[in-house]
Amino acid sequence: MSFHNRKMGNMRPSIFPLHLCLHAAPAESRPVENLEHRGYSLSRWRLEPADQACELAVTFEDFINAVEKLPGSFVEWDGSFTWRPHGASGNWLEGNAIDGRQGLQNVEIKLHGPLPELTTLFDLLGWPGQGLAIQWVTEGLYLVPHSAIDLVSIDPSSPQAEL
Fold first, then answer.
1. Tens digits of per-residue pLDDT, 59-98?
2. Range of the domain at 108
């Protein structure tokens, strides 16, 4: 029986498709706040509007070239891409790289199911050397990378997702 056909009980609600935007973290440290949100334990940043304008160190061209080399990826030169690391029947993501003045402005993605391989995209952006602020767009939260990794790694229908 699928997750959507079961009673919610103590299961976490599905968060997929999950809309995230990957930004450069501000150069100066910002306070991190721990919170419970929709059944998930998260750590978030409180960012000022100016913090959101930081560019990533990697260039648009280098990022697109690296994504194109991932098995199961398809890239358009306008910056849009899809990635199916588990083949046509597995979970996948679609994204768009937004060019900045010198580096990437951000990378917007929508995940269609749990995808722990998201860290591969983080690596292509230079993480952990390049700090990242992960915006959970529909919730208005800026997460630290480890919270985002936890969020996309848990299938809400699995027993481990029980509260």
1. 999 999 999 999 999 999 999 999 999 998 899 999 999 9
2. 16-22+44-137+150-161
What confidence category does residue 162 fall into, taking pLDDT thresholds of 50, 70 and 90? very low
Residue 73, in any domain of the structure: yes
Average of per-residue pLDDT values in the chain: 86
In a domain, 3, yes or no: no
Number of folded domains in the chain? 1
Which residues have a Cβ under 8 Å from the Cβ of 147 and sit 6 or more positions away?
Answer: 40, 42, 43, 44, 134
Task: Flag whether 122 is in a domain.
Answer: yes
**Structural domain includes residue 66:** yes
